[in-house]
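Researcher: Structure for this, please.
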Amino acid sequence: MNKTEPSPQGFEEQLLRDLTAHVAQRAEAASEARPAGRRARFLHGWRLAGAFGLAVTLTAGALVVQTIRVGDQPPTASASEIFHLAAEAARQQPELTARPDQYVFTENLATIRDLPASGPYQTIRNQLWQSAGGVAYTQGRYRPESDPNGWGELRELRINDATDPTKDLDAFQPPAYHGDLPTDPDELLRYLRENPVDLHLPEGADEEAVYGDESMAYTTARLMLQGYVPPRSLAALFELLAREPGAVVISGDVVDAAGRHGVAIRMPGVIGGNEDLLFDRDTHVFLGRRGSVVRDGKESLHTAVALLRIAIVDRPGQLP
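Model: Predicted structure, token format:
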């Protein structure tokens, strides 16, 4: 069986549909004052979890996409070595604690582009309040990075039923605070095998094959990076990812959506595109993700998400 990385559906996909709809509405309103034919185009239905794009450089109001060539220049370290350095960096981070009734606040910059690989890129700033204990719905708000006053309303983001996208599931999102994770890589691997993330697979999907695949534990580990993992557990997570076969370091300099220079590790098992994890080039702190799509042998940026800050707060809408 081929190893695959299922693109998670559910709250993240709904989150991004809401985000792009909000931005598109603002662009539609603003475009009424401009000549016809100059309206901005936005991607609808893009996913956060499985697509975080090609190497990008932010210029004054423009996003320049660089072609990725694996192996053009010998990487200074292997993927495994980068993950081990990231683990050491994680151990140095201060630990945040959270009660089940609190929220994990994250703020990031996301660049998005229409599919198929055409049209302009847009940069969005979004803020999320995810339930630390999984006892409430995630809430979020968004704005175009070019419009400091363009925040949308704070609203709940609910998981959709994969068989009926118009229907909300009754269950809350899983906890965003992963405080109970083992701190030993071997124990963590066993834990992740016994507690895989719910991918909300569409009807007819071979759940036994997906959840039984040996790569599923690594998929779960990577998706946990969207919440908060305490330092020692985060170090174990990176040590575990260092074992995943097929990961490679992308040659050359990488600049994330926030303009930070880093190193990218391309993860295996993605169908129809590529997913990279980004780490600071000097400190090896985790920066975010990027993903690309491949069509007719050509690779192009789909999305890039740069994590700016993470904190624990008491209620949705509260800023740290």
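Researcher: Any notable elements?
Model: The mean pLDDT is 76. The first helix runs from residue 11 to 31.
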